[in-house]
Amino acid sequence: MSCDVKEIIQELENDYTIRPYLTALEHLPAQEARLADFPDWLDKALVNQLQQDGITSLYAHQASALEAVNDGQNIVVVTPTASGKTLCYNLPVLDKIMKEPESRALYLFPTKALSQDQLRELYRLIEALDKSISTFTYDGDTPVSARSAIRNQGHIIVTNPDMLHTGILPHHTKWYRLFQNLKYVVMDEIHIYRGVFGSHMANVLRRLRRICEFYGAKPQFICCSATIANPLELAEKITEGKFTLINNNGAPSGEKYFLFYNPPVVNRPLGIRKSLIKETARLVSKFLNHDIQTIVFARSRLTTELLTSYLKDYLTKIGQDRDLVRGYRGGYLPNLRREIEKGLKDGLIKGVVSTNALELGVDIGQLDACFIAGYPGTIASTWQQAGRAGRRIHSSVAVLVASSIPLDQYIINSPDYFFKETPENAVIDANNLSILISHIKCAAFELPFRAGEQFGSEELEEILQFLEEKGFIHFTQHKWHWMSEAYPADEISLRSASPDNFAIIDLEKGENKVIGEIDRESAPTTIYEGAIYIHEGEQYTITKLDYNDYKAYAKKVDVNYYTDAQVESHIKVLEVFEEKEEENMKHQYGEIAITTISTRYKKVKFYTHENLGYGKINLPAEDMHTTAYWLILSAAFSNLAGGKISSGFTFDLGGGLLALSNIMVNVTPLFIMCDPKDIRAVAQVRSPFTDLPTLFIYDNYPGGVGFSEKIFEFRDKILRAARDLIENCGCEEGCPSCVGPINQVGSNGKQSALFILKEAIH
Amino acid sequence: MDLKDRLEKIESLKRKVQQVNNNYQKSSSSYWKARTPLSISEVITGNLMATPYGPCFFTEKNIPLESSFGELSLLDMVNYFPSGLDLWIPKFKEENNDFQLEDILFFDTETTGLAGGSGTYIFLLGLGYFKEDSFWVRQYFMSDYHEEEALLWAVNQFFIQGFKLLVSYNGKSYDYPLLQTRYIMMRLPLQLNTTYHLDLLFPTRRLWKRRLQDCSLPHIEKKILNIFREEDLPGYLIPQVYFRYLQDKDARPLKTVFAHNLQDIVSLAILTARIGQIFQDQDPLRRVRSGLDLFSMGKIYEGNKDFQYSSKCYEEALNGNLSEEESLEALKLCSFAYKRQGEWKKAEQAWCDLISLSRGNRKFIFYPYEELAKYYEHILKDYWQAERIVEEALFRLGQESIKEENKKQWQQALHHRLKRIKRKQKIIRSI
Asked: Fewer Cβ neighbours under 10 Å: the N or C end of chain A?
């Protein structure tokens, strides 16, 4: 018999090895259901079936969603995990098809696994209704023999953005039945469509709307999103339509506890903490011991496997069946996954360790406890993972365990930031020139462009003329036609930041053994000849870099050093879009040209960080045009450099700027939903452009995708977060959890960065 | 920095695509020599057809039936059609007593690429048909994209004359769906109401893939029909020629494209005749010499449940030049074809041959033993012979190195059979 979660929380609070390291213990009270009647226009057979299934009324948000859709509005539904979101779209869609059997709907899910699970419920409902409504999944796994039947007969087509982009839109004539009768486009988890992926998605939808128009259809959009700061803005930007926000969650939930645990520091000067994996395993085992069904989220496959084996070992130690704990991740076969999902629902499995594969939609029922080993990168994801624990009636608990990276340390020490507001903004730039131009090619392939037509940017006509000059399209009688043998959709991946990736090949395993990929922008600093490349904990040295064929050849080695490329960056400011002048500094945002060249690399010994020597890097300079935010410090800072500050330390301008650039890159993802590697920073003690100390933060993607604009907008919050992180970090002179290691930023780097920040914040 | 510079910059990232295009252009640079452009009607003799969407250029050529192409002439269509057609279109002859050569439409397109999808256009569409003791090839051409509606409308006017059988090469998965796409794109009706579509790629593959691997039409022309094209334009260059023409409006290089398409249409007819000749009812074997082709024919007849002809083909194939592996396979298929016909003596001989062959190359095969045992036990009811062959199989199983899993399974089956045979022997003795 499992004990109540309250008891175990009591136990944790009384444990002197745990209590001091709990930085938050939040109690979220239970919420009663808020119900509403079925709308009277809803098909009676559908209502009857729902009632037979025990659904006697709707939740408030479901009713609002139905009304808005019936009223012809586009909606975006934002409610927590397990609040019955799927009914918000399944009911209007089924109702429409039952009333007008020719109607069609298109469901877009960002991942394949997700679509499988969301559909099971829909299938069951349709089967019970006993109406001839057909729902088909159309993706890369759909057998060729079944495709033509699906195209002609499917009422509901379930697919993903990639398939829509390469498989459906370019072949729209085969889908004319779908497009002619398309009433609804359903998009779940739209918060995933941000940054580069989101910018691509917005263009895929421009193409979709263009084709719908060709067939005379004007579908309504029904979107769902996790909780972010700007769901309405995101939905409107992605689809370029007006939306109604539905967020009056009426689903009941039991009370919930949310704990933050920061593993103790073991080396204060270096800021090293106890192992995330071992600490998580230690805490989870207490839950297993109490028979509390627990899900553990880990950030990587490797961590997942390690945690699983630690927990299995624990079960052996206490004389229980090792199979009570299971691992779950992407590489597992579908049958095994289904077995684990079922085991969780039936309660036969006590614990599961998963990558984020289980974060979205997969039906495993609700569990008692959830551990999040390492901050998942966004608050939205954290709540989605935490939502895996939470019974309707009983109480549940979620525990976030921090790793030592800066983002984790910020969150774990700023519970208010996490619990009080939703500061994350999903950002896209549908008019990023590189992305836009790729999709204009696809669109021209799909339907000729008419003179005067709109597609995103106002510069469309200029772009078309450019493409004509390049021989991709041909203009005749007011129309541009595709004039190339290429199939343009094949050249664009919606998900990768750069169209070209370098493949890293293990020489010993032969030409075809690709062990990893590196995007083009990162190649010069990570896979130059002589570089040590670390892959799943193994060291490799790059023996040859084939720059033309995008291949790097690696050989396994065992050495006691790592390599660090020394990069020179030259930044030219092309245009300033906006600026804000303050007392001691100036903020600007605009367009830059950046030239980076890696000239040599350092071999750095592990632990001691001794310099073991240099190697040459022979690579061409990389040019990129992108957008950037930059902070210009006044000459007063230059004058202070090298001098003593009143608080007693020597002001190190270079070290301080470097420290600041490290921390800014790390805290920015708190406000705009991007990965730290999506943005880059360059610190210049005296910038040739401004003549002053300047810190540039730029979008690490040609043309920029809108991050810099938002950094400019949210600069105050970002600077404050950077300050808080430095102030709350227990290290003495800098550590990887805040401004970066001392040997990089110097012994006064941390203090100097803090000094600059305090000056910057008013 | 103005937009154009930025675009240039981004474009340089896509140099991969450019490279591919450049290669095409380099390899075909002889086609692009600067000169005064000539229009299509100055290069190809043809007419303009008036349509509601403007004029459409087309040309028509008469090809006398006697003209020979390789070993055959178009007269052979008259001689052999529709022999063997039932193999590809079941019940064709039965359903079409009054079928005439005039009911056939040969069809091939030249397009702006092979990718398929709505950005691939048909710029030249060739049709072949018989009329008044002659063969005609009609080619419709669009001299720019805006003439597509006119082309499709004109082509449809021709289609609605009514044809029963459409003949193409890879048309089922390429040309025909593309044609449908084009009509949908232009919102025009497509009234090609042929009852049957013979895509020659399928019979060609079944007949010659075993021997030739490459089943592209030019390859088949060379190897099977003995047609050698002079100065032919390789198919992969055709889109580039057309794109070039769109830009410089010089139609001269298109001459080779028209010629290429015309030859394709003629080859469709010759290939249809050749396949008819091979399957001509009276003498299925005389014109095929390759053992592998005979083998392939055997498979085709077998698929059609015509075991008499299939065994005949296998027999002939075995007299041809087959590899050892192919021979074993042919003999196996032959033995089962005998069995299906009730030709037990021949089947028995084939199984015995297989056993001695397998003994020769020391590769154990199980099924001849099993088949012989079944034959002796159930057909001949010669239990002594049956027992002998089962014992022999068991003996050889013990000797040879065989995958353990199979060995066990076979041994089990044999022991089971042996027990039953012995029981039957006992009953007989006791009578």
From this structure: N
With a cut of 70, say whether residue B402 has pLDDT above it: yes
- Which one, of A214, A207, A215, lies nearest residue A180 by Cα? A215
The answer to whether position A613 is within a domain reads no
Residues spanned by the domain of A155: 35-246
Chosen for mutation from B145, B147, B244, B248 (greatest number of chain A CBs closer than 10 Å) is: B145
Measured between CA atoms, how close is B75 to chain A, in angstroms? 38
In a domain, B241, yes or no: yes
B307 and B386 assigned to the same domain? no
What 3-state DSSP class applies to A202? helix
Residue at A388 is within a domain: yes
The answer to whether position A358 is within a domain reads yes
Whether residue B203 contacts residue B209, with contact meaning beta carbons closer than 8 Å, is answered with no
Cis amide prior to B82 (ω within 30 degrees):
yes
Is it the case that residue B15 has pLDDT exceeding 80? no
Helix axes A653-667, A406-413, angle to 10 degrees: 70
Q: Given this model, what pLDDT does residue A563 score? A: 84
| Distances, alpha carbon A112 to alpha carbons A139, A464, A756, in Å | 8, 35, 47
pLDDT the model gives residue B285: 60
Output the average pLDDT for chain B.
Answer: 85
Q: Are residues A547 and A522 in the same domain?
A: yes
Beta bridge partners, A630, equal A588, A696
Which residues in chain B are contacts of A170 at CB distance < 8 A?
Answer: 117-119
Judged by CB atoms closer than 8 Å, whether chains meet at A447 and B118 is answered as yes
Give the range of the structural domain holding residue B370, as residue numbers without chain letter.
364-431
Q: Is residue B15 within 8 angstroms of chain A, CB to CB?
A: no
Locate all alpha helices (DSSP H) within A215-300, ordered by sequence.
231-239, 276-289
Cα–Cα distance, A383 to A398 (Å, whole number) = 9
CA distance A186 to chain B (A): 25
Summarised one tens digit per residue, pLDDT across range A671-690 is: 887 877 788 899 998 888 88
Q: What is the CATH number of the domain that holds A330?
A: 3.40.50.300
* Total number of domains in chain B: 3
**Which of B9, B120, B180 is the best residue to mutate to test the A interface, defined by the most A CB atoms within 10 Å of its own CB?**
B9
B113 in a structural domain: yes
Same domain, B226 and B320: no
CATH number at residue B319: 1.25.40.10
Work out the percent of chain B whose per-residue pLDDT is above 70.
90
B5: in domain: no
Q: Which of A446, A481, A702 sits opposite B10 (nearest CB)?
A: A702
Rounded CA separation A355/A388 (Å): 13
Q: Tell me the per-residue pLDDT of A571-618, one tens digit each, with 9 for 90 and over.
A: 999 889 999 998 888 999 999 999 988 888 888 776 666 778 898 988
A311-353: pLDDT as tens digits: 998 999 988 888 899 888 766 666 777 788 888 888 888 999 9
What residue of B is the nearest CA neighbor of A434? Answer: B10
B24 → chain A, closest CA residue? A485
CATH number assigned to the domain comprising residue B115: 3.30.420.10
Smallest CA–CA distance, residue A568 to chain B, in Å, is 21
Residues B390, B254 share a domain: no
pLDDT of residue A146: 84
B121 and A481 within 8 Å at the Cβ level: the answer is: yes
Domain count, chain A: 5
B321 touches chain A (CB under 8 A): no
The predicted structure's pLDDT at residue A210: 95
Q: Could you tell me the pTM of the whole model?
A: 0.81
Q: What share of chain B is helix, strand, coil (3-state, %, to 5)?
A: 60, 10, 30
Residue pairs between chains A and B whose CB atoms are closer than 8 Å: 105
B124 and B247 in a single domain? The answer is yes
Determine, yes or no, domain membership for A427. no
In a domain, B429, yes or no: yes
pLDDT tens digit string along A619-653? Answer: 888 888 889 999 999 988 888 888 887 777 888 88
